[in-house]
Amino acid sequence: MKDNKDVFYMKTALELAAKAEGHTSPNPLVGCVIVKSGRVIGEGYHKKAGLAHAEVEALKQAGSKAKGAVLYVNLEPCSHFGKTPPCADAIINAGVKEVVCAMKDPNPLVSGKGFNKLRKAGIKVKTGVLHDEACRLNRIFIKNITLEKPYVVMKAAVSTDGKMALKNGESKWITSAPARQEAQKMRLMCDAILVGINTVINDNPFLDCRIDKRKKIKKIILDTNGRMPEKGNIYLNSAPEDIYVAVKRMEERKAERMIKRGINIIYLKGNEEKPAPDKVLSELFCRGIRSVLLEGGGTVIASFLKKRLIDEAHIHIAPVIMGSDGIPFAGEMGIEKMHDAIKLKNHTVKQFGPDVLISGEIKYPEVKSVQRDSL
Q1: Complete domains list, the chain, with CATH
Q2: What is the arithmetic mean of pLDDT over 85-91?
């Protein structure tokens, strides 16, 4: 059983880390608390990639009082030179007597080396305090490091019977203002928003983050035949270089005009009729995009689900029924048996205005191995 005071201060470190959500990519979210004689003498968190790490911020605040103190941090202190010097060295030089940490850094450049360096310097190291909570907070970073793929979040606003729009294209608004405000938090969390070209043409969306104007979210459009409009709301509140159009083909002069403006045109090779979701994600990862918010439409969502590429889902459900006049929020999946249906695990249910939000990790059905007949 973990010490109550360790849990208390680690919760504070996690809360500090979460303050920078959406701003530290490709770095993790890290918070730090320094305690001496039962008093907090220093706090800090990593605010943005390239800026000081959480431990350095907290040590600066603590000053000479850090000698003999206990340092709480949600991720193993780094032991290598990156854009900033190693945090492990700063902790050793400050004379900290003990480090309490939630989890080991999955980055091979660190991964236990930070702990080893601290222990060799005579500092007591305790690990695993609120480990699961720490992993949840840095789930994007963990996937990026371990699988070298973007973390994919699906968001949808649907009627009670699972429809995202009427067949005539009308969809404003299915959910209430409180639900739409909550949905903006997903845009803050992720590096990029991804939609299909029909969403751009039919809805003329802004695809921006309205709750934090500092967030310059990237916009990804899947556009098989190069139908991307050259004007529209999608270009507002966004630099051209933050717009990516993934195509199989596009009229040459149109492509030249868009590239000249700074827009990224991604030509995807292969025999697939449409841009393959896995190839799109690989290309985005190579371009530094570490998390993607998938907002539709239904064909795009289904294509990502069928390829098992979505990690978590947030579905806002409104007390509205559309019946057969509505369009399902996910297209045809090819599911024939209930045990093959995709489920949510570790899910939560919250209410925003009249609407309900169901959030959870995606649980895909097990892939049954095919056994060959013995010869």
Answers
A1: 1-142 (3.40.140.10), 149-363 (3.40.430.10)
A2: 90
Any alpha helices (H) in 249-357, and if so which ranges?
252-261, 277-286, 298-306
Q: Is 244 strand, coil or helix? A: strand
Q: Which residues are catalytic?
A: 55
* pLDDT value for 2: 55
pLDDT above 90 (res 346) = yes
Query: From residue 171, how far is each of 156, 174, 210 by CA, in Å?
Result: 12, 6, 19
Residue type, 122: G
Question: Which ranges constitute the DSSP H helices of 52-208?
Answer: 54-62, 87-94, 113-120, 131-137, 139-147, 177-189, 197-203
d(CA 209, CA 359): 20
pLDDT digits (tens, 9 = 90+) for 15-58: 999 999 999 999 999 999 999 999 999 999 999 988 999 999 99
Give pLDDT tens digits for 312-334. 999 999 999 999 999 999 888 88
List 292's β-bridge partners, or say none.
152, 192
N-term to C-term CA, the chain: 55
CB 153 within 8 A of CB 21: no
Sign of CA dihedral 48, 50, 52, 54: positive
Mean pLDDT across the stretch 202-223? 90
Q: In the predicted model, is pLDDT for residue 367 greater than 90?
A: no
Q: Tokens 């009229």 belong to which residue? A: 251
pTM of the predicted protein model = 0.90
